[in-house]
Hints:
- The chain is α+β, with helices and mostly antiparallel strands.
- The chain folds into two domains: 3-40 and 136-308, Glutamine Phosphoribosylpyrophosphate, subunit 1, domain 1, CATH 3.60.20.10; 44-127, 2-Layer Sandwich (Alpha-Beta Plaits).
- It has eight helices and 17 strands.
- The strands form four sheets. The chain has a six-stranded antiparallel beta sheet with strand order 8-3-10-1-16-15, with helices on one face. A five-stranded antiparallel beta sheet has the order 11-12-13-14-17.
- It is globular, with a radius of gyration of 18 Å.
- The protein starts with a strand and ends with a strand.
- The relative contact order is 0.20.
Amino acid sequence: MCGIAGVIHRDGPADIGTELTRMLQSMKHRGPDSTGYALYGPADDMVVIRFVLAEPNEVTGLDFEERLERGRAEVESRLAKIGADVATMVSETGYAFRATIRYGGEMKPLADYLEDVPGCEVLSLGSSLEIVKDLGDAETVGGQYRLGGFTGTHGIGHVRMATESDVDLASAHPYWAYPFADVAVVHNGQLTNYHQWRRRLERAGHRFQSECDSEIIAVYLAEKMSGGAPLETAMKTSLDDFDGVFTYVCVTGSELGVAKDEMAAKPLVLFESDPLVAVATEEIAIRALIGREVETRDPYEREVLVWQV
């Protein structure tokens, strides 16, 4: 019952924070419990880290404030110890933080080191990717994190209705392809061979932050790409390797791709023009973005489509 959306501008940056908020809010009926964004701003020599130190439903009491302060201080200390120069560190909520650092090392040791801090979960790491997710609908989350005016070229989003797991940040989407920089996925459906692929990827040295099959898709694709496969090739291979009924949207630092399984039962509509491509679970989200009715189409079964910035 969840809703997914994606947008990519091929003629330069736009206010993708506002655009995705409009799209996701139009699908509030599909998932009022949590909302998430994976946004791609301009890449530079800085690494952007989005992390949380607690769940939003834990925010209470003096002890909590002290624990947050200790956690933040420990994160800053560990960044210094691993050789990262912290340029900024701010928090919109008290428990969710955004840091920019100068760092020339590998991402996995950095992410692992930070997640050893009690309560710390790294939501995203990269030169342009920023994952923001929290409880509530898109207008609530977008306003809380001041995403209106977030300038970038592309992004994806997800609205979630909790069915088999809790209403918390750990279960909210999108998912970063830990520890690969700048790769994220949103997904509607179910992988029936989830546990098989999780074991395979764990044996290859990967670890996972959740029990969600969307995270499996993200890490699978990122691993294929790290071996030299283009995103489109990796996505086509996934259709042979994954069982189930699913539609997913993947983003990298410069691409947005969509894939449907061979049954094509999970909905997705597509609008494409020369400067803009938008995809969503429902056409109402496309109209919320464009502001009028436009011609859309449904991707076919086993279809993989990739667009570049």
